[in-house]
Write a structure and sequence with these properties.
The chain folds into two domains: 110 residues, Serine Threonine Protein Phosphatase 5, Tetratricopeptide repeat (Alpha Horseshoe); 180 residues, Rossmann fold. It has eleven helices and nine strands. The strands form two sheets. It has a seven-stranded mixed beta sheet, with helices on both faces. Strands 4-5 form a two-stranded antiparallel sheet. β2, α7 and β3 form a beta-alpha-beta unit. It is globular.
């Protein structure tokens, strides 16, 4: 069953909604309740607590949340910590810097040991194949649960070797990303019918779709601009973009889709409604429409 149907995913959506409206105390209450209800989601909840306490200028509690994470083997790369504006309130605290340095040491060791891996769902002879790449700071075991299993489609998930946190991986180095995927799939890349991905993974998937001249599904693609349209000339391939209208990348997705249409390329932008850069509760419905369309 897709992860979007679980109670914790609904909790995440509720917290994000409160956070986006500036209701930080409400979001913190949700996080504290989640800490008791979902002990197996400890890494996510501790990050929430650190961010929310920091925003409320409760520096001691914010640092304690990060310290507790470190004690429990939960950590994030320095790049993630430095890019998190919620930590601006505690960034200059000596305790915060000590925790960040300790996490960076663990991160370095993890980078040296990490290798790309591949998970397959429903593989049978003759089935059409979809390669689906996770978004930033996720892993294939978690990511694959967002997606329903289609009757006649073989899903392939590749996990990057680029470490982002204790449970997450990323595609920051694009050249290494392509090499990771090629190392686990090899010549099978020629057999992929659809290249798909989410956010950062969607950008890598688009590069592969162009290279192999195959269909593409971009879920909340983290496109910085629409210049990639200049590289697309294959009018046999189909391009599908799914994004919420409050997603910061939505305008670029819309512009990219419009430019592809101007080039008479089969492209469509599917709005997932008034949501930001996250999977909406009814994501499966939007995704299934696209898959049915591409494999009709």
């Amino acid at each position: 069953m897709p992860l979007t149907n679980t109670q914790f995913e609904q909790t995440k959506l509720t917290l994000r909604e409160a956070y986006s409206k500036g209701m930080i105390e409400t979001a913190l209450t949700i996080a504290l309740n989640a800490e008791q209800a979902y002990p197996h989601e400890r890494d996510t909840v501790l990050y929430w607590k650190a961010c929310l306490y920091s925003l409320l200028d409760n520096k001691q509690e914010a640092i304690q949340a990060l310290q507790r994470a470190l004690q429990e083997g939960v950590w994030w790369s320095k790049k993630i910590l430095e890019s998190e504006s919620d930590f601006d309130h505690i960034r200059n605290e000596p305790e915060y810097r000590m925790i960040a340095d300790a996490m960076e040491e663990i991160y370095t060791r993890a980078c040296n040991a990490a290798k790309p891996i591949c998970i397959r769902d429903k593989h049978k002879e003759g089935m059409q194949k979809v390669l689906n790449l996770h978004w930033r700071n996720d892993n294939v075991e978690h990511y694959r649960r967002y997606f329903p299993q289609s009757q006649n489609v073989a899903m392939i998930y590749v996990q990057s070797s680029q470490v982002a946190s204790s449970k997450g991986y990323c595609w920051d180095n694009k050249e290494k990303a392509i090499n990771d995927i090629a190392s686990v799939l090899g010549s099978e890349l020629e057999d992929i019918t659809v290249f798909a991905g989410t956010s950062q993974g969607a950008v890598i998937a688009l590069r592969l779709a162009l290279q192999y001249k195959k269909n593409y599904v971009g879920i909340m693609p983290a496109l910085k601009d629409s210049s990639i349209v200049n590289e697309i000339a294959d009018k046999k391939s189909k391009y599908r973009f799914l994004a919420g209208e409050r997603d910061g990348f939505y305008p670029v997705c819309k512009e990219t889709n419009e430019k592809l249409k101007e080039k008479n390329i089969d492209s469509e932008l599917i709005s997932m409604g008034d949501v930001g850069h996250y999977f909406p509760e009814d994501f499966e419905r939007y995704y299934q429409v696209v898959i049915d369309d591409l494999f009709a």
